[in-house]
Amino acid sequence: MALALAEDSEEVVCQFCKELTPSEYNFCVVCDSQTKCLECGKKTFPGKDYCLSCSKPLVVKKNGSQAPNHYLRTVEQDGDKRKEHTEFSLSDKSVAEIAPFVVAQILPDNRIGDGTVALPPAADEIETSATDVTPKSNADDASTAETPKAENPTANTDKLRFFTEDSGVLVATTKDFKGKTWSEQQKNFLVLYCFFYKLVFGKPVPSDDHLRSAAEKVDIVDKNNFTTYLKGVHSSYLMPITGGFQLNDDGIERAKTIITLLDNKQAPEGEKYWLRNKSTSAPATPRIKDEDKKKAEAWASEKVELGKLDVLELKMAREYAMFAIWSITVALKKGESVKSSEAYHYLTTKYANISVKSEAFLKAINNNKPRYFDSNQLDGSCYLTKFGKQCVEDWVSGKAKPSAAEAQKS
To answer: Quick one: 337 and 385 in the same domain?
Structure first.
């Protein structure tokens, strides 16, 4: 049963099975492993049965831990008769580690495009009736035997069915890759590109940078999440070989499914990501839900002990962001991290005389990682680094004052 994602949900790569799973869940929807601590919300790690941040024990899966690697060989001798039995088993982790190397040795590098992998026929090629076939005479057979078979004149066109070639890069001639979401559109594009790249050029895709460049040419890239989607495609559908990487068996089947959907004129349209508003300037204003806004306003009504810090001494967007996040996560103890939109709304609600713009606030957080700020990989919320937290605490204790000079040193 497929799980429905919330509108603002993102998919992240599970650190256990390397499959994509919605970020809002504490457990992977694929392997059921606990991906986040139920106490503090921090990411868990394979091989650990407790949280590395708060030491809370993790939930143990019902099916137990991974089966260990196992090898057994027995030999029985009865007179001149000899019986030998060998058995072995590998854990899932071991299989995942060695599979790419074993497959690369067994299968030839040119397995795509050498005739072993058939390209699904176009829709108009399937509808040929029996009346369109003309019987050949014996003379025709003899002529065929003497004359070399001509290459299919539509072969190259077929390989470029959804792409054109431009200086070693394939440029898609369609924007809709039949993904129901923007993330699925991007993943479908990546799989389809790898399939046709091998067909056209007869070699593996050379690098992730090549894939990103190809995606940018058709404007399909979600800059905030593309790297995550690319890692997911690598984990599920690609295998490394000499000179780059190419589709594994699952990837080839996924590509054929996508091609069939693209050829089907009755197939529903995918997510129209190309109609989204584009921003070419500063980062967009942090969006905030009504429930998050009410939560931030409730925090703003609570008292925060500022010691020797005068809020009017804050002058820079980075200082405002540091102070707001520190107030929520350290002084008020509302959590290990906080959404940037909540931090901004808290700041401007509690201190009406502060005039920092939301774009500058968000840009300050993004541009000062990882020195002052860092992000929670699971939900994208932000928190202060140890150094950033110490800076604010120095302001509060009077050991230091916020200033532009400090920013220049950093």
So the answer is: yes
Q: Supply the CATH number for residue 338's domain.
A: 1.10.10.10
pTM higher than 0.70: no
Identify the domain containing residue 8 by its residue range. 1-65
Structurally, the chain folds into a number of domains equal to 4
226, 322: one domain: no
DSSP class per residue in 311-360: GGG--SHHHHHHHHHHIIIIIS---S-B-HHHHHHHHHHH-TT----HHH
**How confident is the model over 306-316, as a mean pLDDT?**
88
Mean pLDDT is lowest, of 6-10, 165-169, 293-297, 310-314, for 6-10
Tokens 């019987």, located at residue: 135
Token look-up 């072995």 returns 88
- 12-16, 127-131, 204-208, 290-294: the lowest-pLDDT one: 127-131
Q: From CA 41, how far away is CA 23, in angstroms rounded?
A: 11
Structure tokens at 310: 């005068």
Which pLDDT tens digit goes with each residue over 30-40? Answer: 888 899 998 88
pLDDT at 401: 87
pLDDT digits (tens, 9 = 90+) for 246-295: 999 999 999 999 999 998 988 899 988 888 765 444 444 456 788 888 99
DSSP 179-232: -SSHHHHHHHHHHHHHHHHHHHHSS-B--HHHHHHHHHHTT---TTTHHHHHHH
264 inside domain: yes
Q: 370: cis peptide before it, omega within 30°? A: yes
Nearest to 326 by CA among 365, 359, 285, 357: 365
Assigned domain for 130 exists: no
CA–CA separation, 19 and 233 (whole Å):
9
**263 and 159 in one domain?**
yes
